[in-house]
Amino acid sequence: MRAYLYDNLDTDCREPHELIPSVPVSVEELAESGVLYWRLDSTDYTEQLDRICEERKYKNRDQITVSKEGLGAVFEEKIKTFFAEHLHVDEEIRAILEGAGYFDIRDRHDRWVRIKVEAGDLIVLPAGIYHRFTLDTNNYLKAMRLFKEDPVWTPLNRPCDDNPYRKAYLESIAAN
């Protein structure tokens, strides 16, 4: 996992978009915005994932393949939907099994931070954080999605600052 400030250029969202010179963002700085990260130990993630699921009370899981082949005719539409700035009322938990992509989050200063994830990365975005997702230029990612309850992945597009989950999120990072 690599994280850095996003350059905000209006080019293909699947490009790295790293400022020049780069402004890295540490795991500790991500944590100040409520983002959690684990590097999974090996190509067999089962034991470590099971332990994290038990500790964090994740009850359900599924897998998604985000690719032209996996999504077919709706691929470009889905990529645009994923890249629209939004939040969720539950955590977004992804264990990357294959491929790579980018999660962009709004940090505590409302700056875009780009987080590159690839096979072996597990990331948790807190409920209420503004974020978006895209693939890298290889256009392929296979991920395990984890959920505390039944799968819910309804995006609430920005602005939705009056949302109670957004308000709770802002309160939680103000305490950091």
UniProtKB/TrEMBL annotation:
Gene Ontology CC: cytoplasm; nucleus
Major localisation: cytoplasm
Essential cofactor(s): Fe(2+); Ni(2+)
E.C. no: 1.13.11.54, 1.13.11.53
Keyword Lipid metabolism: no
Membrane-crossing residue ranges in chain numbering: none
Reaction(s) this enzyme catalyzes, per UniProt: 1,2-dihydroxy-5-(methylsulfanyl)pent-1-en-3-one + O2 = 3-(methylsulfanyl)propanoate + CO + formate + 2 H(+); 1,2-dihydroxy-5-(methylsulfanyl)pent-1-en-3-one + O2 = 4-methylsulfanyl-2-oxobutanoate + formate + 2 H(+)
Gene Ontology biological-process annotations: L-methionine salvage from methylthioadenosine
Enzyme class: oxidoreductase
One Pfam family here: ARD
UniProt KW Amino-acid biosynthesis keyword: yes
Pathway involvement of the protein, from the record: Amino-acid biosynthesis; L-methionine biosynthesis via salvage pathway; L-methionine from S-methyl-5-thio-alpha-D-ribose 1-phosphate: step 5/6
Gene3D superfamilies hit by this protein: Jelly Rolls
Lineage: superkingdom: Eukaryota
Binding-site list for Fe(2+): H86, H88, E92, H131
Keywords assigned: Amino-acid biosynthesis, Cytoplasm, Dioxygenase, Iron, Metal-binding, Methionine biosynthesis, Nickel, Nucleus, Oxidoreductase
Cofactor note: Binds either 1 Fe or Ni cation per monomer. Iron-binding promotes an acireductone dioxygenase reaction producing 2-keto-4-methylthiobutyrate, while nickel-binding promotes an acireductone dioxygenase reaction producing 3-(methylsulfanyl)propanoate.
GO molecular function: acireductone dioxygenase (Ni2+-requiring) activity; acireductone dioxygenase [iron(II)-requiring] activity; iron ion binding; nickel cation binding
Binding positions (Ni(2+)): H86, H88, E92, H131
Subcellular locations according to the entry: Cytoplasm; Nucleus
Similarity field: Belongs to the acireductone dioxygenase (ARD) family.
PANTHER family: ACIREDUCTONE DIOXYGENASE
Functional description taken from the UniProt entry: Catalyzes 2 different reactions between oxygen and the acireductone 1,2-dihydroxy-3-keto-5-methylthiopentene (DHK-MTPene) depending upon the metal bound in the active site. Fe-containing acireductone dioxygenase (Fe-ARD) produces formate and 2-keto-4-methylthiobutyrate (KMTB), the alpha-ketoacid precursor of methionine in the methionine recycle pathway. Ni-containing acireductone dioxygenase (Ni-ARD) produces methylthiopropionate, carbon monoxide and formate, and does not lie on the methionine recycle pathway.
Name the record gives this protein: Acireductone dioxygenase
